[in-house]
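Deviations from the work plan: none for this task. Representative record:
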Amino acid sequence: MNLLFSRRKISGLLAVLPAHERSFVEEMANFNFPPARSLKLKSVMGYDKHRLVDGPVCASDLACFGMEHLFASGKLSRDDCDALIVVTQSPDYLMPPTSSVIQGRLGLKHDMFCLDINQGCAGFLIGLFQAFFLLEQAAVRKVALINVDVISRRTSPRDRNSYPLIGDGASITIAERSADERPIHANLKMDGTRREALMIPAGGLRLPSRPETAVLEDDGENNFRSKDQLRMDGTAVFNFVQVEVPPMIRGLLETAQTQMEDVDYFLFHQPNRFMLEKLADQMKIPYEKMPSNVVEHYGNSSGVTIPIAIAHNLRQKLLTASIRACLAGFGVGLTWASMLLPLGPLDFCDLIQFP
Amino acid sequence: MPEIAEILKEIRPEFDFTQSQDFLADGMLDSFDLVTLVSDLDKAYAISISGLDIIPENFQNIAAIQTLLEKYRQT
């Protein structure tokens, strides 16, 4: 599905990372693998450090911390936002929506639209689409898009398939109308037949959490996880990304009548360095135009990785300059989406630590 | 340039890769070893194996890997 927007912009962006940094080398003992094999994997995949919450920290805790930071620093006023979109796969509750939790905790006005979206690694794009749709309404002048996940709380520390690469975090992206009439092209595809490639099998109503769903099971490759925890079919996900993402990007650029060389940065979701470099090689994108360093510094925090990639790599540049950015997200669903837009100059672009 | 068997041996020294026709089915390589193998082959042969070629069938045994590498030598 092709989408077309205009007179829309991202005006500010804040990433929130748990202060506690863990290292892959320290965690290697949890995995049932010889250290030499794990170290080899570390260098190939880019596993090094990641940020995970301590204890019972919830999505709304990270989100409210970030929003309060914006209020306190004068970058946003409590009544500024007419809509609050929260994209998460680790909500505080099954009900009420985490967006309502955040609205209530922050004391935001009642005259606003609060919405949760259950999406993951494509969640920044999906949330941005929704924000841009909402801005069609005259009553909506500014949207706060919050991507947040504390997926470490549902990931087995003994699962080398997932645990070394995951990260927790939140981002707050402000979307609003712009005077810039240049078209913003985007596209989106979904395939629910492949939904089991990334899932947490238990905890919903299909398979409620019970003592037996909490039992660790060997996946046959020495990874131990329970049905209450994240399960990722790494081979299926890798193939999905390599097969679907390049044609999606080529289609986007063709629709936008834009050459690959005219894009300043390809800011993609950050699953791991190996997968991103293989994508870059396949599409002949120079590595310096496609950052792949988020996993090694912070871990993969699903929908938060694109804002983190922006804040980590381009913070200073985007406060004064505008770039032509190609964003792409791909993951749970399965879902894949991309957008070509002018990005910057931003009113703010920060990366802060929680707490 | 190291032989394919040597590269495999370095990843999993405990196995004799010349004796298997299906490394994955025989439990000699797992999905992460495959990633390591691709990275090592890329470096050893100064190529970049396409993400589209990183499928189990291309790494089943030494002959399959040789066939895959041949494709990159020709391009």
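Chain A has nine helices and 17 strands.
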